[in-house]
Amino acid sequence: EYQKGQKIGVEAEIRGLGAEIHYDFERLNSFVISLPPEAVDHLVNNPGVVSIETDPVRTLVGEHQPATPNLLTGILAKNTPDTQVIPYGIDMVQARDIWDADRNGKIDRKAPTGEGRMVCIIDTGLYAEHEDFVGADIVGGYSQTNDDSNLWTLDGYGHGTHVAGTVNAVNNKLGVVGVSPGKTSLFIIKIFGDDGLWVSKAHASDLVDAIYRCAEAGANITSMSLSGTQSNEHERRAFQTLYDQGILHVAAASNDGIEEYHYPASYESVISVAAIDSNYKVADFSQFNDQVELAAPGVGVLSTIPYVDISTIVVGEELFSGYHVEYAGRGTATGSLVDGGLCTTTGDWTGKVVLCYRGEISFYEKVMNVENSGGVATIIYNNLDEDLYATLGDGNSSEIIAISLSQAQGLNLLNYVGDEATVHSEYIWPTSGYEAWGGTSMATPHVSGVAALIWSANPNWTNVEIRDALAETALDLGDPGRDVHYGFGLVQALSALEYLQANH
Fold this sequence. Notes:
With 504 residues, the protein is α/β, with parallel strands linked by helices. It has helices spanning 7-16, 37-44, 69-76, 88-92, 95-99, 159-168, 204-217, 233-244, 363-372, 407-413, 440-455, 463-473, 493-503; strands at residues 20-25, 30-34, 57-60, 63-64, 118-123, 138-143, 185-190, 202-203, 221-224, 226-227, 248-252, 270-276, 292-297, 301-305, 308-315, 318-324, 331-339, 352-357, 377-381, 401-405, 420-428, 433-438.
């Protein structure tokens, strides 16, 4: 940060030191730069420099957490195109109580829908061609991740598209519906690359640039399913200034399941959102501290994604739907189904589809034993009473297909040993898909969507009034009153709207 009136001199010195300038935030009297550590001492001694602080990392806080495969088979395979699933969180936050009170599937006459309010989603981009966004008001966006700022419409990871679906998937008899039935305006800032959570990282300065762009686009709400462990004074000031100007900020509390503050959620100007499950219990991964303000559904949340990932086994007329074993081969293979037991050794499996029980050796070793025996596909089923999400491990791969199943599915499949089985695993991108994910990332858009929904009833209400109403009317969970796990409680759209109408 430089003193007012000293910008030119400070800029000349940092350029002379060979620094790379990333941002010039005149509103903060600040440059964001990269330079060698030894050059920092020179800047510290410059009388025009007020302060120097690090630019901390910001990452995504949502995880791929598929719902039961059989629940999604019809949607994913497009076998039931006229079936719309209502994600459990939509009714938990009372969204349809506002715009479809009679539950006839149609938007009630003169009901608030989010129309006239804009949510700015800062994430991995948005697949705007998704079938559940056809007719939605997507007003534009910006990509920070490359030279083409229009690539905000590219979402190679899916996180941003998933978040957007919870806010605003259209009520169209397809897939899912959002808190707003496709009526809230969306502005998209792509701040993460297409590798999403695993490699790509953004910084506090990228987030500051993003919220400034949100404000310039006319956004009323910023929705941020991201976080970082370090605060940054310039970032804090930027959020506070825009909050004071009327923008409501909503961010994920984070997913480490500890007390530590994460940012931007823990700034005073930001609503920090915790995650709960369908039984109203806080998720074990959800951050807990005195900055947590509201809770929302964040476990197994079904929403839109920009791809389809299908892994199935067909035996006779029976269809088993499972999960692709990460890093394994894809395609279609047919062969006689055999029971390989634990598959701890190779076997006489040429041309066979081999069913393997989990345990004793790694998934990779099991798949390699099948592949080295001439098997055409491996099916691994769990030794626990739950779904199995298996991986061959980083750096490993297989030529043959590998699919994982639950214990119950595997035991059922044993009844078909000796029959011909067709195994299919396919990944299609970009296309219209649906998955259930988990994280405070998934809870955050429920709150953002509710804020837009109730605010649309009267755009003259302020961001402070909206925030107060959400807190005052939240469904109290956990310890009586505000607590570190649930904040004020589960966000409630209809209750907040009625509170606003009665008190303003």
